[in-house]
Amino acid sequence: MGMCLPCLGGAADDVVVTPDPETRRQQLAEAAEKRQKETAYRGVKNPEAVERKRKKQEETEKQEMSTSVSGGGGLKWQVG
């Protein structure tokens, strides 16, 4: 019964203060991001190297897309 009524038995030390909803939401979001990172890099010895390689590949693809569009090397329509 002391657990239900903290004023009767010094159980006030056991009471956990619940953070406000915004703080709780932020903590849950951070925990979810951490879990996603851990899951994404499971089994990878050097996740930073993997991330650098992925970004470099994305930049290369972006450059290829911009040069192919501006270069006009694609298909051309002919009407007539």
In a nutshell, what does this entry contain?
With 80 residues, the chain is mainly alpha-helical.
Characterization of this structure:
Helix content is 61%, strand content 0%. It is mainly alpha-helical and 80 residues long. It starts with 5 loop residues before the first helix and ends in a 9-residue tail after the last helix. It is elongated, with a radius of gyration of 28 Å. 0% of the residues are buried.
Counted beta strands: 0
Overall body shape: elongated
Taking pLDDT < 50 over at least 5 consecutive residues as the criterion, the unreliable ranges are none
Strand content: under 5%
What structural class do the secondary elements suggest?
A: mainly alpha
Helical content, roughly? 55-70%
How many DSSP helices?
A: 3
Cα-based radius of gyration, to the nearest Å: 28 Å
Report how far the terminal alpha carbons are from each other.
91 Å
- Pattern of helices and strands: HHH
What is the overall pLDDT average? 80
Q: What profile does the largest beta sheet have?
A: none
Summary keywords:
single chain; mainly alpha
List the helices and strands and how they pair.
Blueprint: H1 6-9, H2 21-40, H3 47-71
Protein name: Small VCP/p97-interacting protein isoform X1
GO biological process, one term: positive regulation of autophagy
Region (Disordered): 21-80
